[in-house]
Structures are given as structure tokens and as C-alpha cells.
Amino acid sequence: xxxxxxxxxVCVDGEPRYIGARAFEILELLVKAAGRLVSKDEIxxxxxxxxxVVENNIQVHISTLRKLFxxxxxxxxxxxxxxxxxxxxxDPARADRQxxxxxxxxxxxAGTAPRKCPLIGREQEAADLHALLERETLVTLVGxxxxxxxxxxxxxxxxxxxxxxxxxxxxxxxGWQGDTTLESAVLDALGLPxxxxxxxxxxxxxxxxxxxxxxxxxxEQHVDDLADLCEAIAEANxxxxxxxxxxxPLRVAGERVYRVGPLPVPPAGANDGDIVECGAVRMFxxxxxxxxxxxxxxxxxxxxxxxxxxxxxxxxxxxxLGAVRIASLGIQGLAADLDKxxxxxxxxxxxxxxxxxxLRATIEWSYRLLDDTERTVLCRLAVxxxxxxxxxxxxxxxxxxxxxxAVLDCLVGLALKSLLVVHSVGLSKRYSMLxxxxxxxxxxxxxxxxxxxxxxxxxxxxxxxxxxxxxxxxAASAQPVLAAGPWA
Length: 488
Ligand SMILES: Nc1ncnc2c1ncn2[C@@H]1O[C@H](COP(=O)(O)OP(=O)(O)OP(=O)(O)O)[C@@H](O)[C@H]1O
Ligand SMILES: [Mg+2]
What we know:
Layout: E1 2-4, E2 9-12, E3 15-17, H1 21-33, E4 38-39, H2 40-47, H3 56-68, E5 76-79, E6 83-86, E7 102-103, H4 123-135, E8 138-142, H5 149-164, E9 167-172, H6 182-189, H7 200-207, E10 212-217, H8 223-236, E11 240-246, E12 255-259, H9 272-277, H10 279-290, H11 299-311, H12 316-340, H13 359-367, H14 372-381, H15 390-397, H16 404-416, E13 421-425, E14 428-432, H17 435-448, H18 451-462
Parallel strand pairs: 1-7, 8-11, 8-12, 9-10, 10-11
Antiparallel strand pairs: 1-2, 2-3, 4-6, 5-6, 13-14
Helix pairs in contact: 1-3, 4-5, 6-7, 7-8, 10-12, 11-12, 14-16, 14-17, 15-16
The structure holds adenosine-5'-triphosphate and magnesium ion.
């Protein structure tokens, strides 16, 4: 277990655990007391300086902390009628719950997380978001796992709130366990009185006219819970501004969805100047250099890096993991590693959430949120080597048990959940998958035993057997990035 006072984060087995702001303040007092008894009065004065609260409030938060710190006989000792202290448990079996590292409280504002490294290649997105925040109350950054939604949102939110002189509170929902209502967690993070059963109206009332920006981060697992709350806050049109990051939109009234795509990659055959200008290359080089890797900017090396960035679809998390790898494998070694499987890329930041430790875990996190039919359709569609049309998708993925209508619904769902990339071609759309998503889906397809049949079916399209549904796109309307297979 790790407790970071600076990041205001408790991690168990590397996974951040949500604890409310009040509980954290109590924990901080106990940590700083370094084993000394902390009286209830001390807690009252530090945590609720201007409010009269019943003692029961302290107990509620202590019991939340206890659950994390080894239970009744764990690290948090009660001295009846006097107070609490943090001390090693008498039973050594509970010592594994030992808080391994306490980082001192630095300048970080409560509820916001420190940014790990500079934001690269998102100048346009940051400008768009600044403009959106001037007129919208609820902005949701939507995009695939690891694309950089959190990083971008934090950067923009911090700058925007500094300029407008309003408070920023970030709530990381990836680690939220759902012990209380979401509304209660939000009130807690805002430092407002919260009952465990608080609802949207309580949050709207409590925020009132307060000018505050709430960053509800990594929300995809809780979109249903969040929808009511965000709609209520947006409708009340009070002082609060909401930024949500999620792999899928909330789909509520008043929501403005902003899609975040991967960083631009250089096209094959780009010259050196264009390669080094590309967002993905800039980020890859910056991360590799931060790891102490000395990379020459000669044409051969730049070309190899451009290829790696394309293989990694310009996905920042993938670039970050790749950049860590070249320190030990070199550029050639990394390229060979990617040929084996992009999914096994691992070894990112020690502080990253487990879903971001490998690319497989990142896609798995999204895959787990799909229903069975969506999973089946995703895996079947992975046999298309490049972008495909809606009718081709229906023709390929439909079967006796799964009608074309159902496939269409799934396709819409998969696009919403950022597992399909949507391209506009004239008035119609094409769909494709990021390389990592496709690699994952192909693995799952192989496990399902359907791979042979699906590949054969796709090949039969290529041979023109389904020309009725698979008309080639007129050349003039095709985007250069999209392939011109019979499914395109
Ligand atoms: N533009 C960027 N410049 C530098 N680093 C970036 C950029 N975008 C993302 N990163 C880094 O890539 C990693 C993944 O980014 P981030 O956590 O923001 O992705 P995400 O879209 O929020 O993913 P998830 O869906 O898993 O929450 C982080 O370590 C982040 O710091
Ligand atoms: Mg995120």
C-alpha cells in the first residue's frame, strides 16, 4: 500500500483507491502525527474548522480508512474516548497493509493531480477546449483508452481555472469503489457535508452559486451513475462547470462531446522535416530522451521511428510504453518486438493505474464494458484488414443468431465506446480499428474458434462474391488513409 499526501492518493497493490476528501484529511493528520495520539478535538478543528459536526462523522470516515488499513486490528488504533493513532498492527499478518510510502504534502491543490510530463502535440485540441469551456457547462472528452484524455483535460482545466480564478476539483472515478453514492463522493471531494445517500439534488443545492470546475475523470465504468448527476448540474446552470473524461459519452441533455483522437503520425515516405514535426514523433522522442535514451536524428533512425509511431497508431500510451522499451531494446529491437505483438508492450510509469500498465490491459478495460453481442461483433469485424463500410460490416458479422439490425446496433455502440474509429467519406462513413484494438479482437476471435470461418468469409468478399453489398467506393470520395478493398 502507498499513501501519497502530495497526490492525495492511496494505492493498494498499485491500484488507486477512492477515499473522500474528509477521510483523506484525517489520514493526513494521522500520518503527520507519526504515531502520536490524535485527539477527536484535533480532528474536528483541522477537518471541520467552521462547522459543528457530530462525533459520528469522524467515526464514519475512520471506518472507511480502517477498511483500507487492515480492519479493526490493523493500522488505525482507537483509544477509547481519546482519539486515534496510526501504529503497526500487533498481528504481523496484517503488516502487509503497511502504508509503504508517505509523500510529503507539496503545493498540489486538493483533488487535482500533478501532471507527469509536458503535454505534447495538442495545441489545437487545447485551443478548442478553451473555447468550448467559455460557453458550455458540461464537456465530455471521449476517446479510446490511452489516447490522452486525462492528460489533456488536466492541462486545460488547470489553465482555464487559473485564468478565471475558480477552484478545480478532480475526482478519479477509475479507483472509485462505489461504497457511497457518487453524489456523496463528489460532495466529499468538494469538502461539503455529505450523507452516504446523497443524490443529484443535494449536490446541486450544496454547490449553489459556488464557482467551481469539477473534473470527473476516467468515468466510463460509471456513466449511468454520472448521467443523472451531470444532467442535474448542467440543467441548474449554476456556478459549476463539468469536464468529464470517458471512453464513451454520457448521452445526457446539455452534454457537449469532444472527441480526442490519437496524435498525428507521419505518412509513409514523409521527409525528415515532416517526421520530426509530427505530434506522435515529438512525443515518442521526448519520452525516450526522458528515459535517458540518446536518439540520433539521422534519416534512417527517423524513418524507423515514423514506422514505429504508425504501428502504435499514434496512441500516446502506446508511444510511452514503446519509448520505455527502446532504452533496453534499441529501435530495431522495439520494431521486432512489435512484430510479435503490440499488445504485450508494458512497463510504463510505476504510478500508472494497472489498466495502463500494458496495452492489453487498456483494451481489456474497454472490452469488459461491452455486452456479449458487442464483443462478438467487435471480434468478427477485426478480420477486415482496413476500413470498411456499414453494409460490409453487416454482411460479414451477421449470422443466423445475429441479424443485420443487431449488428448495426452493435456497430453504433462500438463506435460510441471508442472501439471503432469513424471516418467521413463524403456523406457516408467508414469504420476502422486502432491497431491495438484489432490485435486484441483478433486474439479473442481466435479463442472463440470462429477465426477460420470469418477470415474465409472476408476473403470471399475480396473475390467479389458479395458484390451486391460491397460496392467499391468511387475513387474521388475515398480518403487516402482508407484502403480500397471491396469492403471500403
Ligand atoms: N499529448 C501528450 N503528451 C505527452 N504525454 C501524453 C500525452 N497524451 C497522453 N500522454 C501520456 O500518455 C499516458 C496515457 O494518457 P492518459 O492517461 O491521459 O490517457 P486516457 O485517454 O485518459 O486513458 P484512459 O482511457 O485509460 O483513462 C499518460 O502517461 C499521459 O501522461
Ligand atoms: Mg484517463
